[in-house]
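Quick start: what a row looks like.
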Amino acid sequence: MTERLYYNDSYLTEFESPVAACAARDGRYEVTLERTAFYPTGGGQPNDVGALGGRAVLDVIDREAAGIVHVVDGPLEPGALVKGVIDWPRRFDHMQQHSGQHMLSAAFESICHARTESFHLGTGASTIDLNKVLSPGEIAAAEDEANRIVWQDREVKLQFAAAGEGAAIALRKESAREGTLRLIEVPNFDRSACGGTHVARTGAIGIIAITASEKFKGGTRVEFLCGNRALGRIREWRDVFSATSRVLSVLPSGLAAGIERLQGENKALGKTVREMQEQLAGQVANRLVNEGAPAPNGRVVVARVLEGWDANGLKAVASAAVASPGICVAVFSATSPALVVVAGAEDAGVDASAAVKALIARFGGKGGGKPELAQAGGLQGDLNEMVAAAGEILGLQRGATERS
């Protein structure tokens, strides 16, 4: 078994140990040591990274009876004494988040009588899953309580309980682990069995900020940030709020109202555009039809790019155009990626859906529809090539004359 130095000192960042074994696997090397300060993934907390004997530590795995395995990018000689260096910013970040989780879970238990079912320490944020649906007020009350303990800067005590003693110790959550228990305790607030790395005093957590919550599997999932992560999110929000305030010419406190006003104006503008496009659609459709000289069989293909038209407008133009006998039409937006609407008159004998599928196969995007009218978006490429391809596809379907 590997001696776990982090069990007794989460602040230990450098150590030395003989190499017990080294084995190559999948282009990397798995190294076991007699002792290590590297924390392996477990208990919802990711592993440490850093350097070992000059090699980069890429992963740390707890194989229990086989010991802790360090996945490194080069071989290390068995028996050699090597130095390990922990990536401290990552380690301390995990200490803040994990200790903050203990404070939050204890607060949810005492304030809301909500039990923590699981915990995940993510790269950007962490989550706790609770067994009850909680109101925003209850969540805020637990958040306040957790921060109260943080700001009192209480000691975080480390204790060990021998096998058989665990059942007699009052723990926030019963431990299924057999043998010696490692206990993390904040006096008069929380005591939990935990093998993770933690701060020495609650003040080092800095602040606990709940950033989101949602109903999840009959309970509540809360997302939270602690310490430096919370500071980083505040800076991010500050920059976003400042930029948005400048664009909308309002103070940050007026952003919600400003955005609501902008949405209303945009909705009204969209309605006006749709009404104008509907009025113009018939005229544009007539122009397209008139520009296409009839083929000997009376059918004609028209393929065009229309500037300033959205998907609804293109559909209106195409629908109006195919009201004329023998017309099949493909109209594209001038945007990139492009939109396309394909339609055919009842007597044109074309399959608009098949034509759109052929365009998607060549230019990408997604779409579909019916034989009489189909559309797609996300087409990438040269618009002239798209227009030519659409004319060719529709022309080949029925042998019509292309006018593009």
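That is the whole record. Confidence is low (pLDDT under 50) at residues 399-404. The chain is about 35% helix and 30% strand.
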